[in-house]
Fold this sequence. Notes:
This protein is of the alpha/beta class. The strands form eight sheets. The protein has a six-stranded mixed sheet. Strands 12-19-18-17-13-14 form a six-stranded mixed sheet, sandwiched between helices. The chain starts with a helix and ends with a strand. The structure holds beta-D-glucopyranose.
Amino acid sequence: MKPLHILLACLVAIAACTNNGTPVYLDPSKSVEERVADALPRLSIEEKVAMTHAQSKFSSRGVPRLGIPEVWCTDGPHGIRPEVLWDDWSQAGWSNDSCTAFPALSCLAATWDKEMSLLFGRSIGQEARYRKKDVLLGPGVNICRTPLGGRSFEYMGEDPYLAGQMVVPYVKGVQENGVAACVKHFAVNNQEVRRTATNSVVDERTLYEIYLPAFEAAVKEGGAWAIMGSYNLWNGEFNCHNHRLLNDILKGEWGFDGVVISDWGGCRDDDDAITGGLDMEFGTWTDGLHGAPSDSYNNYHLANPYLQRIADGRAGTRELDDKASRILRLIFRTSMASERHYGSFNSPEHYEAARRIAAAGTVLLKNDGVLPLSIPDGGKLVVIGENAIKKMVVGGGSSNLKTKYEITPLEALQEAFPNAQVVWERGYVGSTETSFDRVDTGEDLSESRPAGQLLADAIKATEGADAVIFIGGLNKSANQDNEGTDKLDITLPYGQDAIIETLAGVVPHLIVVNISGSPVAMPWADKVDAVVQGWYGGSETGHALADVLTGAVNPSGKLPFTLPRSLADGPLKTERQYPGIQEEGEQWWQEYYDEGVFVGYRWYSSKDIPVCFPFGHGLSYTKFEYGPAKASKSTLSCAGSFGVNEGTETVLKVSTDVRNSGERDGAEVVQLYLMPPAGDVERPVRELKGFEKLTLNAGQTGRAVMELPRRAFARFDADSHRWVVDSGTWTILVGSSSEDIRSTAEIKIN
Ligand code: BGC
């Protein structure tokens, strides 16, 4: 530095000092923006570039000279990932990183309860904070487009409105701890097959109506401080530096002021990394750019190549200042925040929260009077199936966790019926894996009996039983609920369908619990007496399931996705739709979202295709009677078009009285769907636009009031890039699921 420059820098520093001599950026009483403005000019180009890329598997550099700390990230989204080595994915071998494992996000979505989402976010945020993490890599809100999607268990179902409502409290809960939520994977990343080499061909209407709204809610309503770009391409550009998605939509239209973080290895190009809206590059393959020696973070796209481009004039510093400002903002919001809690880890409150959320998400799909369980003292309960004993917090990919304990369903049922004989038989062998990423459950799942013997032993065990429960489903092995692969089918693996059918023919009343994070087919549903959808419930998974089976908790979960009868019934009919095709002359696989907005129940209800259990379905041990749906107006004058950020004002209120007419206290999710008038543009016959979970004591009546903004009625018009409300007579459908509509009302829109 020349003497004149040093003098100038000193003058700037003195001018920037607050009264007590503390530089503004270090003064927690100053606003985040004042601190950013003060800090930015103090940084050299090299320091700014150093902040934009990783220095280890999960951290990026700070500016030690100025006391600006490193940024530390962690997976996400179900608990705090165990520590890995600096430059190696191996476990660091800490003995104090066993966390509370919270339920998978598909379970959280199934609660349809925003308070549960806040509790989840708050609790996991406290755990992240305790572990000194600044960014939690989650939650995920990619839409469950196909039942085969390997990561559906980490997402919030098939409906953009549900996912949008559920993501907001999670983000707020995490961030109130001074930890950024990094909402992932932006965007249209709906499959694991070839996730780094597939171009999602999605039209803008479908993008705006189905695949963006949950992210939009996380940003605009949740105030998310970070977003993770996805591995795939949209519109021919990789999403970690996709100009349209990141610069135009996320940062432009939605005004996102946080950081865009690449998925690990998702940054693919030196120039686009600079200009495409990316702020922080992480995990460019584990060794730093394909086969380079270890610890080669300086080879990242946003490292030496960036410095080189600035030095030789191919790149300016405008983008760099923007990236550095955003990273500083992140730091002042998190590790240098004025008010920051210590957090807490493995607290009894967190385990209690995990149990409550997992129980609230458990869905009673069918009950012919056999649940809740009642086993007399000295009676016999027979439990069959591998998922009754298999610990599943371990596995699944980057959401793999090491937890202090995991209660299995069998252990919890034994605890719930201490005076009964609770017998377990495996029935089949699924996966004997007990470790993932060198985290081991400590179980021994080896089995020497052949399949025929296993089934015969299971049948024999049922003799004299007071109740028989089959607990099976999926697990987190490859080609099941697992990152990096998709399922191969929606039928249950390991011959479970045949085993269930056999058992149903032998025992008088069979109860089936399916544990999965994604939709499976249930061809035997008519032949059994009760069906429960359980999830990967985390540390307290067994307790939560037993709470529902025994009636300690009255089930109130609702399906966040459709359970179709078969894969063939769904909207993805061709290879070009899924898993994509390789066209001549194209470097990347092309995947055409030809079904447009007809995803999940939007497809089944519009095409009148019967399903096994519909979206939004879930029973209770009590009964709910619905009164008529009442709209606050019968006519609205809100037809016409409006801009992408408009239409948030409430234009209509719909209310319904609901009475708990049974004998138990319980909770019901009242759902509101809109049916548009017939028009030139094809639209789904119903779309979820409101819901409210009412907790009602036996005999109590409550009122659900749902507010509809103008946007609820709108479709996206790609040509004008505006939302459009069509005039005509709309039907408001209020009910207990997307197919169980209890009352309707009409509204005329002029
Ligand atoms: C996953 C992300 C995860 C990251 C870091 C990636 O492979 O797609 O969801 O946060 O790894 O573990």
